Amino acid sequence: MSYAQFLEQMGTVNDLLCSASMLSWDARTMMPAGAVEVRGQQIATLMTLARTTLLSDETLRRLEAAERSTRDLAEDSAERRAISQTQYAIALHKRIPDELQEERVALREVSRAAWVKARAEDRFEDFAPYLEKVVALARRVAESIGYEQHPYDALLSLFEPGETVVSLDKLFGRLRESLIPLLRAVQAKPQVRWDFLERDFPEDAQRDFGLKMAEAFGYDLRHGRLDNTVHPFEISFTREDVRITTRYKRNYLPASLFGTLHETGHALYEQGVDPAYTRTPLATDMPGMYAVGGVSFGAHESQSRLYENHIARSKAFWDLHYPSLVAAFPSQLADVDAAAFHRAVNRVQPGLIRVEADEMTYDFHIMLRTEIERDLIAGTLEVKDLPERWNAAMKSDLGLDVPNNRLGVLQDTHWSTGQIGTFCNYTIGNVMAAQLFKTAVETDASIQPGLDEGNYAPLRHYLRETVHQHGRRFSRDELLLKATGRTLDPEPYIEYLTKKYTELYELG
Amino acid sequence: MSYAQFLEQMGTVNDLLCSASMLSWDARTMMPAGAVEVRGQQIATLMTLARTTLLSDETLRRLEAAERSTRDLAEDSAERRAISQTQYAIALHKRIPDELQEERVALREVSRAAWVKARAEDRFEDFAPYLEKVVALARRVAESIGYEQHPYDALLSLFEPGETVVSLDKLFGRLRESLIPLLRAVQAKPQVRWDFLERDFPEDAQRDFGLKMAEAFGYDLRHGRLDNTVHPFEISFTREDVRITTRYKRNYLPASLFGTLHETGHALYEQGVDPAYTRTPLATDMPGMYAVGGVSFGAHESQSRLYENHIARSKAFWDLHYPSLVAAFPSQLADVDAAAFHRAVNRVQPGLIRVEADEMTYDFHIMLRTEIERDLIAGTLEVKDLPERWNAAMKSDLGLDVPNNRLGVLQDTHWSTGQIGTFCNYTIGNVMAAQLFKTAVETDASIQPGLDEGNYAPLRHYLRETVHQHGRRFSRDELLLKATGRTLDPEPYIEYLTKKYTELYELG
Question: What interface predicted TM-score (ipTM) does this complex get?
């Protein structure tokens, strides 16, 4: 009984967090503009009550009773992991003082506004004082959390538990060493044709095609919906209600096409969690600081990347579905065949903007930002020197000159809102996606034939079995170890990119 | 300081209630069907936390301190009224035992399902046992709340404080005595032409026209939005976010036309509340049992009825706006002029269904239901005798034969969900609307000229001044007394209907 009572208490915490997420979804999709301020208060109240409930004596009492009653279960049983996740979250919340949390919230409002203005006017120097405060606060958060080697490790633990400056240095070193020669080889080749991607693609038809593919992948619309936002995202309020958004560019088809299927990958993760974990600490729908401790942001990103890149950008996918895309856009694609379309949506084209980057160059944007964060937190890089550092890296990695800070260091919102430590998740997602996908097709002989004929169930079942169903029960590396026999390993990713671009650009 | 601390605590309660309303709006407009059950849990958690917070020792402490610090203010000052509203809500919650509340929630689920089935199959006898339980529980609620004369008075106090069996008997007597002869006189006249209302009216154009009129009335879309639902409603999450919904019938124009402007009336009330009352006990956005004690459901309905009937069904409105309706539906309305349209949307046509009733016969549907509720609670009417009683009243009041219970006693969802005591609000809304509107045009000489030329600001300012801005500070009769010099008075309503239908049907 006592474990059930503990879960009941955590169900209240989950309801509060999911309600806050619901209010946040509405704020980004439906809410009239004039309600911004009061909505912020409502969300803050729900988050405060979630925190108060989590840290209450009642929770502690039930937690201790649950711990006693589950002591004979395996360490990695769902019960004991739910308990240890909760203990971890409580400890973390207790380590970060209320006033520090309040300072962060207060700073976020003003620094984001300063960033919006500074970006519009291309005046980095106006944003710099705010960024200095953001960095100083992040350092204090790191000190509160604690770390062994590097303060940045503490911030990483909030998003990608287990990852450190040392492990990332090693990962990035290996990626640079293999991807830079590959990129140079691609750049030496003539560009593939892609002009037709910029024709006029009416939004409704884009939506219909994207949604049809999302459903083919297994996205269940009885428990989901697709909306339109400037910044696409996936969000869930339990596995029973998992929503995605996308952005339609009428004159650039890939934006919504791959955006929708990227978010579908996230959504399949949420919809695939064991129903028994709903409203428990093992559910994956715990926003904010409650998300740490279990599975990582990188693990979540691995699912979106897997569906976006390994499936939706594959030759098999377009060989099969291109006729139906042509049916949706008959005049726009009249002069393009499946092979040309597949090449176009996989073209490599180094650019200044992260969110527009192709699969080959995306990680360079990430490594640049992660290393800057690391050095800012370490104090070996000063905010004022950021543009210089940024521009030098863009030149050395991608060979690009950055004409102004709007297209450079001011392009992302993350730092202005106090998010430091979370860029690396994207690259870890790429690496993990390749590692899982390789093992998947090697392990289950029905997966690749399924993909070839448009039956996505075998892949989905494999991912549900190995990743989705577990929710936050296992860590990222535990999942990888069980599924692939190895912890995070960049070799399958390097292998995948090398093979892909060697074929596409007919490299030696 | 202590009053501010009390308000801070009540702000948390308001945030929880508004969040619950937000989740409820989403459930009725956007939510995927598969999320029904878990959404119910989330809303229940928020409502429970609101109640727990309201009844907490902390609230009591702050309430007592606030009371001490405001003792020298006037009894009807905002501060003292906020305090007394809170005391009333606390007392009420304490009087209704938890287990009774839980029994009601549990019964609601099963009885609503039984009603849906019984209605579909036209088997009142299958619903009767559930209705008996609903009535028995309502009696227990009435006993818990307490009353002086009649148990039904206790239930009325939840929705229309101050109203009693005695006062309603008197009101209904006066309405019947004057409206039945008027109705008979109308029925003796030939019907006006209205066939053109059933032509094909595309939804988008209906929406555009309705929204344009709503904005003309003063509905502020920076703090609102209009959506489409089967059952139209208005809901707010503070005055900064006041949403309405409507229902489009492609082959019956009045449904969305007047539905939208009805909900607009509700929305103007919410948007007009003093901003200083936001997140306080004087805000009007407190759903469920927190809504009692201040202004009444009838007062809210008076604003929707005023805009729907006194404005949007008026001759002045159609003389002015009919050309723009014709511009929206040129072929559909080619052979109809403004006068004919005005007559058609005001035609009297006794029917079996309350929600389709015209302005003249609507109150008969309400009086019938209210009197049945009263007698059920008193025990002078048994559930099994309900159809007979219903059908006899439809015959004597409206001269109609009820062919089956689907079109009779089974038509409304209210009783199946345990709502008893709330039908009378509609008629009180009608009465109050006429009383306020009469005084408005008599008091402010700029109102009628404004209405004639499409300037709705003078009316809105008058209603804001006399009603909206006060939120829940004054009772319905206090508002009426200040505005009109009288408490609720049916004479202006009778006068209005008599004048209107005498003209429309050219009665003697």
Answer: 0.94
